[in-house]
Amino acid sequence: MKSTSSTLLLLAVLALSGGVVCAEQADRNKPMNVEADTLRYDDTKKTSVFTGRVVLTKGTILIRGARIEVRQDVDGFQHGLVTGEPGKLAVFRQKREGLDEFIEGQGESIEYDSRADSVKFIKQAQLRRYLGAALNDEMSGGVIVYNNRTDVFTIDGGVAQGAPSATGGRVRAMLTPKPAAAAAAAATPANAASTPPAALRATTTLGGDPK
Prior knowledge:
Layout: E1 10-13, E2 15-16, E3 19-20, E4 33-35, E5 38-42, E6 47-58, E7 61-72, E8 78-83, E9 90-95, E10 101-107, E11 109-113, E12 118-131, E13 134-147, E14 152-156, E15 172-174, H1 180-187, E16 201-203
Antiparallel strand pairs: 1-14, 1-16, 2-3, 4-6, 5-6, 6-7, 7-8, 7-9, 8-11, 9-10, 10-12, 11-12, 12-13, 13-14, 13-15
């Protein structure tokens, strides 16, 4: 078992409306639009490299960085590697399915995988959940992996990966319970019996080695 002073895995599951509410599902089928200063496209390798104040949109997904390399695999899935501007962090933002909620994350680099439907924030990683414009949850660590399909976040302090975060190799999280009235409205149809609201829950149980 690893020491909590070096590596800590925190799994935060957003269990809402009687089940998991995922990121906007239509995004995976939307076209990818990119603005940048320069573009280098390699048709043989099916890769596109955008550099200079890059802004990428794909449905509700918004990504910003200094450089974005996009590769398309044989099945048409897109894989992206984003690097932040000098002295700044790369940014990822996406709406959650059927809700006025957004997930926003930052890191020195970001890996986006449309096949696995996941996003990985690397070094100085930060992740926030907004209810409308209000900040609801905030987490930080060395590496954060966000699974869009299940809304499970895996956060690593970073020491085991040789890249301590600004938090000194510790995971930090601020998790706000879902408002009782909103939870009841989301979980209970107008003509159904009331059920207890499901809240954001987390566990600090240590898992296996981070990937």
